[in-house]
Specification:
Hypothetical protein af1432, two-stranded antiparallel ribbon, mainly alpha
């Protein structure tokens, strides 16, 4: 039996033998936006796409690697970490697919250490707000959150799948133009998405800057 699957755009991809020509950012954004973190065991719907954006806005340099660090889950689905690491064959498939995706978008592979560290910080930050019974478990110290730019009192503002998909694509577009043309102010770009992802407790950037205009003709 073939291991290829249909994608949102109507293409087909074989996650076991991935062809970069069959990998599309629209498929990644759509699939990740419709997958709930923690195997769905959250007190509110919270997508893998929003998690990916949260890691990206906290990065200091590896923005695109952070945004796409879970891109493989668009084709392999999100398996909770304690279970995933028990399946060595799955891990091998995931690594191969991740390398193909990162190579397609000219990203640093393996995933940079900064992104891996941020992934853990955001994981525990999310657990403290989204997993029942973990609200006051002190999974992550405030001094650690301070180190990564998460002020005390910051709350996650879960997005509906359609909004998560839209913002994921907007962030990708903005970061891609920054990567190739360098014509964006990163503080402004990331500040905009911080406002999208978190509530008003996240008062690091001016609330006056709520719209980023992405010029498709920028050179």
């Amino acid at each position: 039996m073939s291991s290829s699957i249909f994608t949102f755009l109507g293409d087909r991809i074989d996650p076991l033998n991935p062809n970069p020509d069959n990998i599309h950012i629209e498929d990644i954004a759509h699939a990740l936006s419709n997958q709930c973190r923690f195997g769905g065991h959250t007190n509110r719907f919270y997508s893998v796409a929003q998690h990916s954006m949260a890691v990206a806005v906290l990065s200091k340099e590896n923005y695109m690697e952070a945004l796409l660090h879970d891109a493989t889950e668009a084709f392999l689905v999100d398996i909770p970490r304690p279970i995933k690491h028990k399946f060595s064959e799955y891990m091998d498939v995931e690594k191969k697919l991740q390398e193909v995706i990162f190579t397609k978008y000219s990203l640093t592979y393996p995933i940079p250490a900064e992104v891996q560290a941020l992934d853990d910080v955001v994981l525990y930050f999310e657990m403290g707000q989204l997993i029942n019974g973990q609200e006051h478990s002190d999974l992550i110290k405030q001094e650690v959150m301070d180190e990564y730019g998460i002020p005390e009192g910051t709350l996650i503002d879960p997005l509906a799948p359609q909004l998560a998909e839209r913002y994921f694509l907007e962030m990708f577009d903005g970061l891609l133009k920054q990567k190739w043309y360098g014509n964006f102010n990163m503080d402004e770009l990331l500040g905009y998405f911080r406002q999208v992802l978190f509530n008003d407790h996240y008062d690091v950037f001016s609330k006056d800057s709520t719209v980023i205009t992405i010029d498709d003709n920028a050179q």
